[in-house]
Design goal:
Elements lengths: L14 H16 L5 E5 L13 E7 L6 H9 L3 E2 L9 E4 L7 E7 L3 H15 L1 H17 L4 H26 L9
Parallel strand pairs: 2-5
Antiparallel strand pairs: 1-2, 3-4, 4-5
Helix pairs in contact: 3-4, 3-5, 4-5
Length: 182
């Protein structure tokens, strides 16, 4: 929740299974309306310390109208956050009383969809960058324990630095997003 303190924990090998379980439910509920379902964020990077929240990116053909994704996701118990200020996605929180899962619904092929996949794949391929990110997150979590907005803002310079490196890596390696995770 928004008021919860920011806590970074050691990587948990159960996170990929938690993602797969939730993604299977999403795939069943949404069918082909979900063009991609991907595990993104820090819990998607093996060995990376993270907040214990499974971030799932669901790619759809369009955010408007939202019937193709909103009704199936709410049917699974996910709670739509209509106050999310990021207009490039629709955000859903986990059903009350369940493990922490955040859903980010984005248009397939959009800049932000690709950016999340690129950063994830870069961190998976570059353990030194993942370690740098983990150290910064632990330090900032202590500094901004009860200030989520401050924590997010303080991480931005490092994230942009990582994205610049990820871009160079993508250009030299010919990176592409690959297959959907679910």
């Amino acid at each position: 929740m928004a008021g919860d303190p920011i806590i970074i924990v050691k990587y948990d090998r159960a996170w990929p299974d938690e993602f797969r379980h939730t993604a299977a439910s999403i795939r069943k509920a949404m069918g082909n309306a979900a063009i991609r379902i991907d595990h993104v964020g820090s819990t998607a990077v093996p060995g990376l310390d993270a907040k214990p929240v499974i971030d799932i990116q669901v790619s759809v053909s369009s955010l408007v109208p939202d019937d193709s994704f909103r009704q199936p996701l709410e049917g699974l118990g996910f709670v739509f956050d209509g106050k999310n200020p990021d207009l490039t996605k629709r955000f859903f929180r986990e059903p009350p009383g369940t493990k922490r899962v955040h859903l980010h619904v984005r248009p397939a092929g959009s800049f932000d969809e690709q950016l999340n996949l690129l950063l994830r794949d870069y961190l998976r391929a570059h353990s030194e960058a993942a370690l740098e990110y983990a150290k910064a997150k632990r330090k900032l979590a202590l500094e901004f324990r009860n200030d989520r907005e401050g924590y997010v803002l303080a991480k931005e310079p490092l994230i942009w630095s990582l994205l610049l490196r990820a871009h160079d890596w993508a250009q030299s390696s010919g990176w592409s997003p690959g297959r959907s995770d679910a």
